[in-house]
C-alpha cells in the first residue's frame, strides 16, 4: 500500500521545515502529519518521511518505536493508554488496566470490533503525582477509580 503525502500536507511540511535549520529535526512533527493522514505510521509512511526529510528509514523507525504517541498499526477512534508504571501501579493502575481490558473485551494492542476503542498498556506518562491515569488520544484523565473510568468510557460511547 503506497503512501504519499497529500498536497495539503506537503504545504504543512513546508511550514514545519521553516522552523528548523536542517530537515532531520523536523521528524516528529512530520510523523504527526503522516499519522494524521494515514491513521498510523506504516512502513510506507516511514519511507516517505525519510525521503522528504533526507534521512534513513532506520532513523525514522527509531523515532517511531521510541515514542508511544506513534502507532505502527491502526488504532481505535479512542486510543486508551493506561499507565502501569510504579506510581500508577501502586495506586491501582493494573486494576484499571484489567478493568478496561475486560470491559472492552480486548487485549493489549487490541482494537474493538467497531474500531471505536484500542488499548495499550504504557510506561510512565508523567502523571505520577496524580496517578493512576489514562490517556485517551491526547487527553489525560487522572486520579482515577473504576467509577471514573466507567464515566469516561460511557461519555466516549455517547459521542458516537
Give the topology.
Elements: H1 7-17, H2 27-38, H3 43-53, H4 57-66, E1 78-83, H5 86-90, H6 93-104, E2 117-122, E3 134-136, E4 139-141, H7 146-158
Parallel strand pairs: 1-2
Antiparallel strand pairs: 1-3, 3-4
Helix pairs in contact: 1-2, 2-3, 3-4
The percentage helix is 40-55%
The domain count comes to: 2
Strand order of the largest sheet: 2-1-3-4
**Which CATH first-tier class of the largest domain would you pick?**
Alpha Beta
* Main sheet attributes: strand count, strand direction, barrel closure: 4 strands, mixed
Shape: elongated
As a whole number of angstroms, the C-alpha radius of gyration is: 17 Å
Strand content: 5-15%
By DSSP, the count of extended strands is: 4
Low-confidence segments, given as residue ranges, are none
Plain-language structure description:
This protein is an alpha+beta fold and 160 residues long. It folds into 2 domains: 7-66, Arc Repressor Mutant, subunit A (Orthogonal Bundle), CATH 1.10.10; 78-158, Glutaredoxin, CATH 3.40.30.10. 46% of the residues lie in helices and 11% in strands. The protein contains 7 helices and 4 strands. The protein has helices spanning 7-17, 27-38, 43-53, 57-66, 86-90, 93-104, 146-158, and strands at 78-83, 117-122, 134-136, 139-141. It has a 4-stranded mixed sheet, with helices on one face. Strand 3 and strand 4 form a beta hairpin. Helix 1 (7-17) packs antiparallel against helix 2 and helix 3 packs across helix 4 (57-66). The chain is elongated, with a radius of gyration of 17 Å. The mean pLDDT is 95.
